[in-house]
Specification:
The protein contains eight helices and five strands, in the order H-H-H-H-H-H-H-E-E-E-E-E-H. The protein has 170 residues and is an alpha+beta fold.
């Protein structure tokens, strides 16, 4: 792990305003990633969804309770320095994903995790569809519980809080 990159990351976490709430924390992490993108390969950025996550508006996408204590983040990173850039990108991608994905029902396949609401956008047809995906086993289904069949060239995005509200109202 690059020492200068790690020190720069830890410096950004030491500002108490950055961990004041989840929107601030998301903003601090994504700003740091955008400013340090040159350390990561394009493939590594895409593999960990950082290309998508660094471009989301935190005021629209960050959820109220992502399921982890924000006050412990600095200590968590101090105790668990990643071994390499690949692991670091995965940790950051997973943490950001947790902050923007809304949990739904329990997974019917593995029963080990709650499924997340996602937006599947089929690029060729410009179709958008809300689906549910298990973070643990990858099981993906339609809102009605039937198995989702992925089309060619689909972009998977988090669903915004507004899109979920519209779905739940209708």
């Amino acid at each position: 792990m690059n020492f200068i990159l790690w020190e720069s990351f830890m410096d950004c976490l030491e500002n108490p305003e950055g961990t004041k709430n989840y929107i601030n924390y998301y903003s601090v992490l994504t700003l740091w990633l955008r400013n340090n993108k040159h350390y990561f390969s394009e493939a590594l950025f895409k593999k960990n969804r950082l290309d998508i996550l660094t471009n989301l508006n935190p005021n629209i996408y960050v959820i109220e309770d992502p399921g982890f204590p924000i006050a412990s983040e600095l200590q968590r990173f101090e105790r668990n320095k990643p071994k390499n850039l690949e692991v670091f990108a995965m940790i950051l991608g997973n943490r950001l994903w947790d902050m923007v994905t809304i949990r739904g029902k329990a997974c019917p396949n593995c029963e080990g995790d709650e499924m997340r609401y996602l937006l599947a956008e089929e690029l060729a047809k410009k179709n958008k569809k809300i689906i549910l995906e298990c973070n643990s086993c990858g099981w993906t289904e339609n809102i009605d519980g039937t198995s989702w069949e992925q089309a060619d060239k689909v972009v998977i995005l988090p669903v915004s809080k507004n899109e979920i509200e519209k779905l739940l109202i209708s």
